[in-house]
Design brief:
Blueprint: E1 11-15, H1 20-31, E2 35-39, H2 53-64, E3 68-72, H3 79-90, E4 97-98, H4 108-130, E5 133-138, H5 141-145, H6 151-171, E6 176-183, H7 196-201, H8 208-215, E7 225-229, E8 232-236, H9 255-260, H10 262-265, H11 277-292, H12 304-310, E9 323-327, H13 329-338, H14 349-352, H15 367-375, E10 394-403, E11 411-424, E12 428-439, E13 442-454, E14 481-486, H16 491-495, H17 508-513, H18 523-539, E15 546-553, E16 562-570, E17 573-580, E18 586-595, H19 614-636, E19 638-646, E20 649-658, E21 664-667, E22 676-681, H20 682-689, H21 695-700, E23 704-708, H22 717-720
Parallel strand pairs: 1-2, 1-4, 2-3, 4-5, 5-6, 6-7, 19-22
Antiparallel strand pairs: 7-8, 9-11, 10-13, 10-15, 11-12, 12-13, 14-16, 15-18, 16-17, 17-18, 19-20, 20-21, 22-23
Length: 726
Amino acid sequence: MSVPLVFDGKVVIVTGAGGGLGREYALAFGVRGASVVVNDLGGDIKGGGKSSNAADKVVEEIKAKGGKAVANYDSVEDGEKLIQTALDAFGRIGAPFINTFACISDLIHRVHLRGSFMVTRAAWNHMKKQKFGRIIMTSSAAGIYGNFGQANYSAAKLGLLGLANTLAIEGQKYNIHCNTIAPTAGSRLTETVMPPVLCESLKAEYVAPLVLWLSHDQCQENGGLFEVGAGWIGKLRWERSQGRIVRKKNQGMFPETVRDQWDNICDFTNATKPANINESVATLVEVLSRVETDEGIAPNPTSAMATAASGISPAVGQKLPESTFSYSQTQCILYALGVGMSTKDDDHLKFLYEGHEDFSCLPTFGVIPSQAAMMDGGLGSVPGLNFDFTRVKLLHGEQYLELFQPLPTSGTLTSQARIADVLDKGSGAVILLDVHTYSGKELLCYNQYSLFIVGAGGFGGKRTSDKAMSTVAHPNRSPDAVMTDTTTRDQAALYRLSGDWNPLHIDPSFAAMGGFKSPILHGLCSFGFAARHVLKQYANNDASRFKSIKVRFVKPVLPGQSLQTEMWKEGNRIHIQCKVKESGAVVLSGAYVDLHAAADGSPQILPEAGGLKSELVFAEIGRRIKDLGAEMVKKVNAVFGWEITKGGNTAAQWTIDLKTGAGALHKGPYSGKTDVTITVSDDDFMEVVQGKLNPQKAFFAGKLKVRGNIMLSQKLEVILKDYAKL
């Protein structure tokens, strides 16, 4: 078990601590070493009366368990008195401070909202002086969602959230963190309306652990909102649709336009998640800019953006101007430093020192020559993409890179880019840009950029494409390996020297315009960190083992934060997820790295003792494809992926390609996108092909798992029929 959280030397003020949640918090803090001020008026459930009994009883419980506690019977409106009690008894306050209120009366706003403000104000300066404070406000589901007959209570509880959010901002620089919880727990208030069995399952003790964690000095959460109850905890956040601009420069705005665009206004496809007021205001700044230049977002055929959108379809297949990229060993080393390599690690030297006997170029350097196709304004020259790329908001959504041979440490490379597809996501358009990079006539690498253009959707195009390199969810188990690196404050400044000069990553004022409190790290820098983590963990830093990588960019990283890569090994595919260690925020998702077999002849898939019986079947399938492949392609027209397991682990992967050419059988995962992927154990596979196990029964029993177009699996009969007779 991990090291327990303790609160030795900390002082806690718990309001409403005579019963219910407050009592549970007070007892939990007392047991873990905190000095507790137990505040409770001792009133009834309607807020009437006053008694010291409730607070005194909890104090005695804490002391009986070896803890330190003192009672306070003042109203929360007398915040100074609560704070003075803490100072008189224990000499300090502020770590943490808990707000929970158990009374509902006609004075709801005075007790819940104003009382919270008064107690916080009384504690605030003391917290600032000691450079530490933890405040937890207690809101409720009624405040977040509303509830019939609780207008006054709901208003007060949502007001607490607004108060907490502002305190989180103002207290950040003083190490004062403020979070809000919306608990569901049995109490004096709920026991009269909830069945006893339900009250029992909603014990207050199932809420207290969250409060203790948010109150601990190890916890860096700030400005969060959490629902909690029955042993479950979930974090809430705001979500906002991409919206629509419904006016033009020097023209009026009319309700009929709002009505006509209502579905688009309320479409949460690719919704944004503003986390602060800067991110919120940034959208309006962008809107004003577009209105000023008549670039309305609404899918109106007379607007500049809609005209561009209606011309997107002809862009598919169009080629961008060819670009060249010349580099030396210096650029290779600079890139390695940019993605966090350091001479502190001896095994990094081969990527940092040109005199090293195994001097190599990091595989993910392969994105650098390809990005010149975009950086040089190539997209703006494509017929059908009629908008100004210097004005639209362009987001890097996903990235795929595949190497066909190790990258040379110097040379002149040529990149050829084309628009693979354009998708309509409603709130924006996605451009799939394929870039093939050559050294002379030899293909070195292939990149696919997924670029999201905010506001360019709504033109009636398709939403998905079979040309897109897909992301893949990681296995549902704990990671097999985790690696963490801390980025430096200058990480973005260093990485941009490899060619991405976007001021978003260096200029604070430019970052603020984009809604960020400071310049952010390049997504492809995080991409490089994650890839080299895999290379070190599973390939001993052998660049020749690297085959491909696919990631989805989720959230930005601030220079100075730590990148934590979680890895799951399944055969020769390493699924990865990258997080910011300090916040737990996922920054790369649906990601994987495919590796080649080791040079010593190690198989691409983990070997299994005794071999696999299915090997014989696939050998026969290969023979049939060789003889009748063209005919099979006409009948089937699909790519099948097979994952054969043994002992619960992936033991072999096969690809049956009956879609291209005369068909083919490959051992290993498919480099593109399969139409259907089937996972089955070696034994069950043999039972199915020999007719001993009905495939449908196997599917519903969970023995045979299918991803993709399940109907295509019926065409496997063309391949597998009569196997039992062989």
